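Problem 3 from the worked examples.
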Amino acid sequence: MKDLIKKLYAIAGKESSKLSRMLLFEVFKSIFEGIALGAIMLFLLKVFQNIFEHREVLIQDVYIVFGVAMLSVVGKILCSYMADRNKYIATYNMGAENRLYIGDQLKRVNMGYFSNNRLGNISGGLTTVIGELETVGVNIIETLFVGVIQTAIMALFMLPFDMVTGIIILATLFVGMLSNALFQKKADELTKKLQSLKINLNATTLEYVKGISVIKSFGKGKEMITELDRNISESCKGFINVEKTVAPAALIFLFIFKLGICAIILSSVLRFCSASIPPYKAVMLIVSSFIVFAGFEMAGSMQNIRGVAVQNLDAISKLRELPTISEGDVTELNIAKVEVNNVKFSYEKQSLFDGITLSISEGETTAIVGGSGSGKTTLCNLISRFWDVDGGEILIDGKNIKDFKYDNLLSNFTFVFQDVYLFDDTVKNNIKFGNPDASDEEVMEVAKQAQCHDFIMALPQGYDTVLQEGGSNLSGGERQRISIARAMLKPSKIVILDEATSSVDPENEEQLMVALHNLLKGKTVLVIAHKLETIQGADQIVVMDRGKIESVGTQGELLEKSQIYQRFISQRERAIGWKIK
């Protein structure tokens, strides 16, 4: 119990105070439960004194019993309200804060994390796990806490009235908690496996839905359904295994408390028979035996799902402790000059760069060319610190990029990727994502220059048309042009274009190149490209081959000294001359 509450506080953040108030009001509520038991006992005492000792029940006695009962009822209602109020506010705020915190952490995670972890596992943690904690997890912890506290308070209320019964209650509570501890370790292990199966099922389902077009095109529907069925079956077996373990444990747990009730009744009857206690006290103890364990019996019913709370808390803690990259304190970037000094980098054990050096001047355009797998995109990812170098350093404005605050560093970069992602939002907001403060006129202007204004106006609601997830209701070229408009609108000093014109129609490409040239003037630009039109206007061209920089220079210089570039240009010129006869 202590470990469970400690884990809850570890992820509670600013909501810790509300959780403390929730638990405090639950303690007060349990005290009022004890007062309710006192009211019952007092009522029975007066009744039995009247029956067995012929004592008169005075009106003051009625008022006292009524007053105690009302105090307990009003106290329980108020404490229940305050406990629930703090619980629900804390729970949902805590869920929101953890999603935001983890989302913020994901921005600072080395890209290798995403290579080694499935998207479904991450989304499952942010949705399923936190969702279960909000709706179920905290309730489980609260019920377990209340069960222990309420039973302990009942025992404390009982001790002054009858020492033997109080000791029986405490002994039963101890044995019940010991029994729970013995079974819970095995249950927690199974629940941990179950949590993994659930997240894996979520990942497989997400993969199946997102990749349905590819699955259909390759006729692999049967194989993927088989994989999905296997995950569903494993998840089902996981639930059954958990139930097989916790069901007997729950029965034993409840059996112990039933034995406790029987022990109180037996003790009361034996002591009555031996004239150790009066008859009315024996009857009162027998009645109370059915009340004192109510809280812990309710907690016992939660034992079969206690593991859910444990694993949810562990999963959230794990996501909160993502291996984020370090950052410095520098916030200002004045000169957008990039220097790559003796950089080494490997994908796990596969070495790619072994000491490459490159200088990119401010305000110039650098085109990076080379074959597939030569390291073009990786170099750009290292410069923008999507990955961290294994050796050497990358300087911008004469400062190591590790010395910048990460968000401030990225705010000086604009990206147009080959694989475009658009958000489930309006076209206008997707473009304004690059600069939320931009006016509608500015949005429309960059859309015209990016050659996407006409097709946007043809959409049902124009700029207010809501795009489907990933922009799936647009063509590849349309998505690319919107992403270029978004990049144009962002005020930044360094721009990275990864095949930015790869999906643009030939008739629009010339205009788009002019727009890009005008809008990127004065900025430091890195272009990964295979088209001659993109490369020829660059201030310098970097030729890469198998993780090495083979040559650096202008178009004319490379045509004289670089065989790889000569071959590259020759292939492109032949491609331009292709004709269909």
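Problem 4, a separate protein:
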Amino acid sequence: MTATITEPDLFGSSPEPAGADWLGRGEVGIDLEALAEQYDPTPHPYRDAPVDWVHEELGAYMWSKQRAILESVQANRYTAVKSCHDSGKSFTAAQAVCWWLATRPLGEAFAVTTAPTWNQVHAILWREIRKARSRADLPGRTTLDARWYMGGRVIGDEDEQLVAYGRKPSDYDQDGFQGIHAKYVLVVIDEACGVPKLLYDAVDTLATNEHARVLAIGNPDDPGSHFEKVCRPGSGWNVIGVSAFDTPNFTGEDVPDELHDLLLSPTWVDERKRRWGETSPTYVSKVLGEFPDVSDDTLLAPALLRAAQELDLPGNALGQFGADVARMGTDETMVYRNRGGHVRQVYRAAKQDTTVTTGAFAKLCRQHPKVPMQVDAVGVGAGVYDNLRAQGLNVVEYSGGRAAVDAKRFVNKRAEDYWNFREALEAGEVDLPPDSEDEDLVAQLGSIKWALDSKGRIKIESKDDMKKRGLPSPDRADAVVMAFARGGGISLPTAAKDRAKRRGKRRRRSETADLMSKEM
């Protein structure tokens, strides 16, 4: 609708031709609809329908729990999703970000994402965001440093606006999110268990109006995290749980064929049931999608293991091998190498004759003659150790049942070495592989329990006791601890040595420690 306004002839002169204004400049046209739209725009048709937007604009299919998550973000200010492994968490969060920015006016909407590490921000969630933006040909551009710009005619145009970014602020910097002011703010906390309470507090400073939304989503692997608190009843968050048994491959939900291959399978779940055990904290969190019941007798808390997985040490020391030997059955032969706290798997075998194992170990020793190998010489490992020693290789006999150096505090060497490993974790001196690289290792480490004997000494749960609880033998965990154990020419990490000195113990600086202090 266009209104034409004709001003009166103020000087009593004859009227100007029809359509001219009072200064004779022609018709004055005001588009009232455009003016109203500018100050009170019509809502986007999908502003309150995220599932329809994803279907129509992205051509993507969302299974039932994914739809429930998007609908919760639309309806609730705070949504928490505790989910099993491989259920499409990051994909769902990315669709939420794209829907949010595409259905709200430029300049009034902003999205922020965070996660415990930069790799989780950049390589996981923002990879999905970039794919979705490209697929739907959404406006603007996304960058490799996790930013989204809209507006402007060319890159760097002064009219171009930053509308979203991903970051990992300092764990102790509550100012990391300040300076964001928008009517519609969406915050996505990915891998929410690993994000500390201080960042949740910082997020609250963004969600100050009724239009703001917060989505915290992740695997519930740490019962001591702030994420666990927001998932409790009465927290004020709308909580959605996703178990492996809720997913289409278990429920029979009708979904496109290609989606079946993207979600966790019954085969994967059965394998983890055998490898981790149904009572394992890792099984409870990654399969059942629930926070594990981690009691005081759990040796290594989930938070410690997560921090070690996120640590990135250089790994340039010669270090030491730790080798746990198995033969037949379900146990595994494992070798890990510890290089200044950076520990990684270097060899794995199952159902293998000890003669073959001896050959494989000998090859490793010859490739790295200056790197000692601690070999579990109890049971089937005794023959392997004897053969390697007979060849003159750099091997050290390991027996967890021997007396501890601090025999008044520990029942045996195995208990002492596991406890020293725990202290190294607490000191931030252990770099463990991520789940995608070695998920079974963390599952085994997180399942081990400890106790005090009648003399008040620390003892570690035996392999036999773990099997009675329905858990597999901790072959990987034992090999890693052996790779950190004293006796093979490698010293404890610096902080561990300081702790030993405080206990009045003297430890000789090893040859490997000397090498670690030199340029390599």
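Solution to problem 4. Confidence is low (pLDDT under 50) at residues 1-26, 488-497, 502-520. The chain has three domains: 2-39, 54-249, 302-516.
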